[in-house]
């Protein structure tokens, strides 16, 4: 009995010590969160880690993706890793101008990776044709094409040369034509599947970036899409843009926290006022405070433990992807209290490690794409004067 009591007390002491260590660790890791300058060292070291892991040979990058998710999702995650890192590098080039030259070179390499046959394979498998060799055709390919166009737009945004101008023109012309040919003004990511609104959003962002570079080309398409979204694709119960549209254009009433948060992030790049309305509704319906700050994956039902390829492991209702994507809007709208709470949750779940001039969440060893997404979200600062428009 005596020895049992001793073991019980020792176990409690170990648990308390681990919890105390975790509390101290989270406080230390989040100490500099806040201003652009306070976060600079942390962000630059995360950039160093990601460049080292992502700017590699295409096959090596694909091997960084979990093997058990299959070829399609390996390709998607590799594409997202490249596009989100590109976004983060472009953002940081504006926040920290001394990084611009390196950012231009790294984004150039990332574009070449995404153009490679190895990265195009997942999309080619689903559509039965190569996305870059079929630009004159009518099949969608919207996810692959839009991410590549978005990356080129970021390359141009920070002073990249003209080497991708012709490709950029072709990508945007193709997407614009295919969108306008659709009676519902949306095109599917894959054949036989619904329209995923966040995937369409990337196309609209890419066209919006192109319009800024070309004195408004495709602005009419962007405006048509946004106006129709406001009028037809907003959920009655939550006031949020829907996550899916059926093939006929009818609304699927399922609203996902991860998709809604991603929609809000993309909207910060297209329509600031609409983005703010959506962000406020997102916090109203999906914000969770206990046991950690973040976003729920489902606002209308509980999910104590679940797994989703897009949201990640849902535990106690909390959506890992939704929580990460929400950082983007919180950053843009200077919602610093909520942003800091989200970053603390990310630290609790991810646990930062630092080696030399690199740092990353341990979870990046499993899902590298999550590290790239979080860096893009953390650097999504509004340009001066943007919030007033």
How would a crystallographer describe the biggest sheet? 3 strands, antiparallel
Q: Which strand order spans the largest sheet, edge to edge or round the barrel?
A: 1-2-3
Gyration radius from CA atoms, angstroms? 21 Å
Q: Fraction of residues in helices?
A: 55-70%
Shape: globular
Count of beta strands: 9
Provide the succession of SSEs: HHHHHHHHEHHEEHHEEEEHHEEH
Straight-line N-to-C gap: 71 Å
Taken as a percent bin, the fraction of beta residues is 5-15%
Enumerate how many helices there are, as a single number: 15
Q: Report the average pLDDT across residues.
A: 90
SS class: mainly alpha
What features would you highlight for this structure?
mainly alpha, 3-stranded antiparallel sheet, 9 strands, two-stranded antiparallel ribbon, 389 residues
Summarize the structure in short:
The chain is mostly helical and 389 residues long.
Please tell me about this protein's structure.
With 389 residues, this protein is mainly alpha-helical. Helices cover 60% and strands 7% of the residues. The chain is built from 15 helices and nine strands. The strands form four sheets. The protein has a three-stranded antiparallel sheet with strand order 1-2-3. A two-stranded antiparallel sheet has the order 4-5.
SSE layout:
Layout: H1 2-29, H2 40-54, H3 58-64, H4 70-95, H5 100-115, H6 117-127, H7 142-157, H8 165-181, E1 195-196, H9 197-213, H10 219-232, E2 244-245, E3 251-252, H11 257-267, H12 272-286, E4 287-288, E5 294-295, E6 305-308, E7 312-315, H13 320-332, H14 336-350, E8 352-355, E9 358-361, H15 368-378
Helix pairs in contact: 2-4, 2-15, 3-4, 4-5, 4-6, 4-7, 4-15, 5-7, 7-8, 7-9, 8-9, 9-10, 9-11, 11-12, 11-13, 13-14, 13-15
């Amino acid at each position: 009995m005596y020895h049992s009591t001793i073991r019980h007390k020792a176990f409690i002491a170990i648990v308390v010590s681990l919890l105390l260590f975790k509390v101290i660790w989270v406080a230390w890791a989040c100490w500099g969160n806040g201003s652009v300058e306070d976060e600079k060292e942390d962000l630059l070291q995360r950039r160093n880690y990601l460049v080292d892991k992502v700017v590699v040979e295409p096959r090596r990058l694909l091997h960084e993706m979990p093997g058990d998710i299959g070829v399609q999702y390996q390709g998607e995650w590799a594409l997202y890793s490249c596009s989100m890192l590109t976004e983060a590098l472009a953002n940081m080039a504006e926040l920290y101008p001394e990084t611009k030259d390196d950012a231009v070179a790294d984004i150039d390499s990332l574009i070449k990776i995404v153009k490679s046959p190895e990265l195009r394979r997942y999309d080619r498998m689903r559509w039965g044709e190569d996305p870059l060799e079929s630009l004159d055709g009518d099949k969608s390919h919207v996810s692959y094409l839009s991410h590549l166009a978005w990356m080129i737009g970021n390359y141009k945004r920070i002073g990249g040369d003209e080497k991708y101008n012709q490709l950029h023109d072709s990508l945007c012309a193709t997407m614009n034509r295919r969108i306008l040919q659709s009676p519902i003004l949306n095109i599917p990511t894959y054949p036989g599947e619904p329209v995923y609104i966040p995937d369409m959003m990337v196309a609209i962002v890419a066209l919006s970036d192109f319009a800024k570079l070309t004195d408004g080309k495709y602005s009419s398409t962007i405006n048509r899409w946004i106006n129709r979204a406001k009028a037809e694709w907003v959920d009655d119960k939550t006031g949020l843009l829907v996550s899916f549209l059926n093939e006929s254009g009818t609304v699927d009433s399922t609203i996902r926290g991860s998709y809604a948060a991603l929609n809000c992030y993309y909207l910060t790049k297209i329509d600031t006022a609409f983005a703010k309305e959506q962000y406020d509704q997102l916090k109203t319906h999906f914000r969770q405070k206990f046991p950690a700050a973040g976003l729920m994956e489902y606002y209308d039902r509980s999910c104590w433990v679940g797994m989703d390829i897009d949201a990640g492991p849902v535990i106690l209702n909390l959506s890992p992807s939704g929580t990460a994507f929400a950082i983007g809007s919180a950053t843009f709208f200077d919602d610093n209290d909520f942003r800091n709470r989200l970053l603390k949750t990310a630290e609790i779940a991810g646990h930062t490690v630092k080696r030399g001039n690199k740092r990353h969440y341990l979870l990046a060893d499993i899902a590298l794409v999550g590290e790239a997404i979080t860096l893009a979200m953390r650097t999504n600062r509004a340009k001066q004067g943007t919030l007033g428009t």
